[in-house]
Amino acid sequence: MKSGMFGDIPVDVGVVYEGERIRKGEMHAELGGPDIKHKFELFRVKSPDKVEDGKIKVVGPEFKDMQEGSKLPFAIIVEASGKDLEEEMEGVFERRLHYFTNWVEGFMHLNQRNTIWCRVSKKSVQRGLTLEHLGKVIARLYHSECPIIEKVQVTFYTDPAEVEKLYSEALKIYDARDARARGLKDEDVDVFYGCTLCQSFAPTHVCVITPQRYANCGAIGWFDGRAAAKVDPKGPIYEVKIGECIDPLKGEWTGANESVKEKSLGEVKKVWLYTAFGYPHTSCGCFEAIAFYIPEVDGLGIVHRDFKGPAINGVPFSTMADSTAGGRQVDGFHGLSFEYMRSPKFLQADGGWYRIVWIPKEAKERVKDFIPPDVVDKIPTEEDVKSVEELKEFLKAHGHPIVEPSEHLKKLGVKGLKGVEAEVAATAEEAAPPTEVVTAPTITMPVSGVPGGMEFEIILKNAKIFAEKLIVRRIEKRKGGKE
């Protein structure tokens, strides 16, 4: 939308472009994304003397200087000040980058933190769009949508060396934020928070954020939700009155059910926060990882966004993400954040980490300190097993709890690997053919008793027959000689 605010921007800007997808053939360049290791976005609260309001800086090549079809490391750092701004609000305002950048025609922003995936279209670059223009839009929208922000400056990094240099510091900042809510339990609070920021891409998705269950994207925790609702009570992040606890094991509350039903316009009726089955939490598409069911062992695997190649079930992250995303509740598939994997409530109704049977090495290292010591070495990675058959052998050899479930797991309905194998064997036995086999060069069987006094002769040559019943019936010819 052309207005006084955006009259100097060469492309349109407005909510109408939220959800715009830029396909590979349409893109001029890709910034971040699954093929690039170093990418991130940060929002930092600074003192007023450290922020030059409206300043936009680009470190590295501009859009026009990027080779068409190229993929580059990318970082966005927004620094802001305001007398009422607090450091605990950083994650909230950082998530608004997803919102604001998607208002720009021809610019696509997916995910968050260190998993951002952006594309700029050929058409918009041809019309003159630059990173400097994008920075102006971001700064102006922060001012107009978030009055608490008094000064804001934006820096883009497209120089690979500079992005790599800043990357580790960004990870430390994310980890420090995530650690704030650890120790606070869901039972200790009387309010959760909801988030609908991703509904432009997943119309029926509603995040329910609790102290022990981070948003799927990994960017918004309970304290972030509290800060956001305080700053903008009518915004996309809002209070959810808990109401009555219906099921503490699965994580079902009347208030959460009412919230998801209202915000999904009735598409989602209820949500269980601590399970991948039944009524699992909806998934948007910005989730950091996916928990997926492996029926051959009655266990759950985990695959994260940056994992290359197929998971242990033979399916890559991208394919599973397409099946999981969109605001749906898909039985056996569950979008989740890394911080939720560190929670004591992590899939507790399914058995938690004692039900996890495979995880990529990189993801395992990130959450290793939060996996129970008695199971951590029993969960294989892509370096240990390459197929489901190898997975079965590994689990048996290392005594994984899924092989012969404990009483606790059995009470949760877990059959385990041996239970699955017993069911398969029983089914095979029921379906097995008779043990008597007739083998002969030629068998002649006269068949009598057919109406009309006719007899048929059936000749079987070199036959092996497994049959419970043989039916021979006469086919009447119709007019015209057709049967």
Q: How is the CATH topology of the largest domain named? A: Ribonuclease HI, Chain A
How many separate structural domains?
A: 3
Strand order of the largest sheet: 4-1-7-6
Tell me the helix content.
25-40%
What is Rg? 29 Å
Outline the biggest β-sheet. Answer: 4 strands, mixed
List how many beta strands DSSP finds: 19
Q: Quick one: CATH superfamily of the largest domain?
A: Carbon monoxide dehydrogenase alpha subunit. Chain D, domain 4
* CATH class categorisation of the largest domain: Alpha Beta
Mean pLDDT, all residues: 88
Instruction: Count helical runs.
Output: 12
* Strand composition percent: 15-25%
Categorize the overall geometry: globular
Please give the structural blueprint:
Blueprint: E1 27-32, E2 39-45, E3 56-59, E4 70-72, E5 74-81, H1 90-101, E6 107-110, E7 117-121, H2 122-126, H3 131-145, E8 151-157, H4 160-178, E9 191-195, E10 207-209, H5 222-231, E11 237-241, E12 245-247, E13 252-253, H6 254-263, E14 289-294, E15 299-304, H7 317-324, E16 333-336, H8 338-341, E17 356-358, H9 361-367, H10 388-398, H11 407-411, H12 416-431, E18 438-447, E19 456-465
Parallel strand pairs: 1-4, 2-5, 3-8, 15-17
Antiparallel strand pairs: 1-7, 5-8, 6-7, 9-10, 9-11, 12-13, 14-15, 14-16, 18-19
